[in-house]
Design goal:
This protein has five helices and 49 strands. With 685 residues, it is mainly β. The protein has a six-stranded mixed β-sheet, with no helix packed on it. A five-stranded mixed β-sheet has the order 10-16-15-12-13, with no helix packed on it. It has a four-stranded antiparallel β-sheet with strand order 4-1-6-7, with no helix packed on it. It is elongated and about 105 Å long.
């Protein structure tokens, strides 16, 4: 791997300089250039030339590693010398002709992630350049920037949102002007109309600097649909923006319907097990599954364990369980490193997904545990295509979680991970990824939450998954080795120092957290817990030992067990609730993808067969049943609440004069006569 075999080099050498002076003549302006290196500063070489000149054609300045030449760009070498790593080197100043154009010719000897260049004219940031690959030419004009010029350069706002769930908006604004910015207003527009604004004050954004914003609402989508969403800055230091044309950034937002909570239906009658796929569709020890957030694609992705040497693979099912079902098996060319013995998969709200390698050392050489979660694109023009070089199609990888067991998404490129080696939970925020096949991993923020003593399967086979309640911030975690479920309040805790494990790379932040709140949720009744899912107030936990799915109520004290959904097939691992509310799971023993449907009688009026119906509906005090004369008076009548628990019990004989429902709380109920679902009834007051 490129990112693991090269030594750390600190020596540097500067090239021959052009005339440098701070006393420029009329018609000239002072120019300086900051060079910002990545993990491999020694691979940078660059030239400053007049516009139109090529590499080595009358360079005004040569910087970086003099061993590198114009001809050796991108030849996958990493020579000694040059600039230090992860540093900012200021070059110049030069007196250049005002209004004239000049070019920066940037070369990376290895051919992956390049250094960045910031151009300052008379001390104000005028241009910023960054790129990838072995060779780039960037051109700038010698001119001072406008005094006040701010633009939104990036939006990391969820692209896929849900009805009834507040959306948080985030992104980055940049000061393109010459003056520092202390306050400004962000405007949030939907389909061309500003819906709300947010004032930002008390900041100090210097010329050429950026500011990351994070705003909670106030936007709670009330209906499904698509929106053209844009953000722009105004009121810069209390005055208009001098260059309004570059203010806004826009994205298309999709709002999806909320997932219905029909788990109570599974607890009323026997569910129906529906096999969807098996090894005929290339499932090989499947460990987890995930639904693509773009519902128009109608895709379920299953991740296979496979072997350590080959790395894991994915099978993408389109229209799963339907007559039009199709599938696509894929393995990235570097899956042996980036997806080795994967344990889990989680999709983000931007179409990316992340996977957890279940190995100690992703290099498989008995060395340091250079292992952790990997970020991927689900774009079919990127994922698993052999066109991005030796590092495959991965978007990013972070290396602090060996034997990772479970993963769930929070927002954008931020994920929560169960660390099976260190027995704790780790938050990973990739932030901006490095792009397909590159290797700069330093942009991340990582925070480690210890003290929970989570134990993985000692055989490294059965998983320990997790799920995040995005509305409350509670993270629910399967602790397989201790046969329990715990939860962590992700809104608690403070940074107490550097991360306790590793690191093997440099990150924007890698911290240890303290003071975080966690507690037990389930401590009895589980044999080999593995997968976990949450819909509404129903927490679902799969048991690998017997194939059961336990259902708990997280809204009640003590998290009571509401019931068990029996699949009858040991080997169950990852579980997920689909967008229609139905339960899906993978079985690593039978190599299968399975859907569970509620019993076909649940919620169906059986008037044609029995003539029995409940009325009035809705009601506020008594429920009557029609046409019961032909039924056995001793036939039981049960009324189930929305959690699947019996709220009232009676029989047909007593029900003929009406059932007293005055003590029932308002809400939806299901009436069962014998083994037949009569219908749903609503108590309304």
């Amino acid at each position: 791997m490129h990112s693991t075999i090269r030594p750390v080099l600190l020596a540097f050498a500067l090239g021959a300089a052009a005339t440098a002076t701070s006393q420029c003549q009329p018609g000239e302006m002072e120019v300086t250039i900051d060079v910002i290196t990545d993990d491999w500063g020694n691979e940078t070489y660059w030239q400053l030339v007049a516009f139109g000149n090529g590499c080595d054609q009358s360079p005004l300045f040569i910087g970086g590693n003099s061993v590198i030449t114009c001809a050796t760009a991108g030849n996958q070498t990493s020579p000694n010398g040059g600039y230090p790593n992860n540093s900012t080197i200021s070059e110049g100043p030069w007196c250049l002709i005002e209004g004239a154009q000049y070019s920066i010719i940037a070369i990376d000897s290895y051919g992956d992630a390049q250094a960045s260049f910031n151009v300052y004219v008379n001390g104000a940031s005028a241009n910023q350049f960054s790129g990838t690959g072995g060779f780039n030419i960037w051109t700038f004009t010698v001119a001072e920037p406008a005094a006040r010029d701010m633009g939104v350069i990036d939006l990391t706002t969820p692209l896929f949102n849900t009805v009834g769930v507040e959306t948080a908006f985030s992104g980055t604004v940049k000061n393109f002007g010459g003056l520092p910015i202390t306050d400004f207003t962000l405007n949030f527009s939907f389909d061309g109309t500003v819906q709300f604004t947010s004032d930002v004050s008390g900041v100090n954004v210097g010329s050429g600097q950026s500011y990351e914003f994070f705003i909670h609402g106030p936007w709670v989508p009330s209906a499904a649909g698509s929106f053209d969403f844009s953000v722009f800055a105004t009121n810069i230091n209390g005055l208009p923006d001098d260059v309004p044309d570059n203010d806004a950034a826009s994205v298309a937002l999709v709002v999806n319907e909320a997932i219905p909570d029909i788990i109570a239906d599974y607890l009323v009658l026997s569910p129906v097990i529906v096999p969807v796929a098996d090894d005929d569709e290339d499932l090989l020890v499947p460990r987890d599954l995930g639904f693509h957030p773009d519902r128009s694609r109608n895709e379920i992705w299953v991740i296979n364990k496979d072997t350590e040497n080959s790395g894991g693979s994915t099978v993408k099912f389109t229209d799963a369980g339907e007559t039009s079902q199709s599938y696509l098996w894929q393995r990235d060319q570097n899956a042996w490193h980036f997806m080795s013995l994967p344990t889990a998969i989680a999709f983000g709200d931007n179409g990316n997904f992340s996977t957890t390698p279940g190995v100690f050392d992703a290099n498989h050489n008995g060395g340091a545990p250079f292992t952790g979660i990997t970020l991927w694109s689900s774009d079919p023009a990127i994922y698993a295509l052999p066109i991005f070089g030796g590092l495959g199609s991965h978007l990013d990888m972070l290396h602090v979680t060996p034997h990772a067991q479970g993963i769930c998404h929070e927002r954008w490129n931020r994920y929560w991970v169960v660390d099976g080696y260190n027995h704790d939970v780790v938050m990973h925020d990739f932030r901006a990824d490095h792009g397909p096949g590159n290797d700069y991993h330093g942009n991340a923020i990582i925070r480690r939450y210890a003290g929970m003593d989570i134990q993985r399967d000692p055989a490294d086979h059965i998983v320990s998954h997790c799920v995040l309640d995005k509305g409350t911030g509670w993270l629910y975690v399967v602790d397989h080795g201790n046969a329990r479920v715990i939860r962590l309040n992700t809104t608690t805790g403070t940074v107490s120092g550097p991360g306790s494990f590793g690191p093997y790379e440099s990150y924007v932040e890698y911290s240890q957290m303290s003071g975080h709140v966690w507690e037990d949720v389930v401590t009895t009744g589980l044999v080999q817990p593995a997968g976990i899912e949450l819909v509404g107030n129903h927490l679902l936990v799969s048991d690998h030992a017997n194939g059961d799915i336990k259902v708990y109520d997280i809204a009640q004290p003590g998290f009571p067990l509401l019931g068990t959904i029996a699949t009858g097939a040991p080997g169950i691992m990852g579980i997920a609730v689909g967008y229609d509310g139905r339960i899906w799971y993978v079985n690593a023993t039978t190599n299968s993808l399975v859907r569970i449907d509620p019993d076909q009688n649940v919620g169906i009026v059986e008037a044609a067969a029995t003539g029995v119906q409940a009325y009035p509906n809705p009601t506020n005090d008594r429920i009557f049943l029609s046409n019961t004369a032909a039924l056995d008076g001793s036939l039981p009548v049960s009324i189930f609440d929305a959690t699947g628990r019996i709220a009232l019990s009676s029989n047909v004989g007593l029900a003929r004069t009406g059932i007293d429902a005055s003590q029932l709380a308002p809400g939806a109920y299901t009436i069962i006569i014998g083994n037949t679902a009569a219908q749903r009834v609503t108590i309304a007051r």
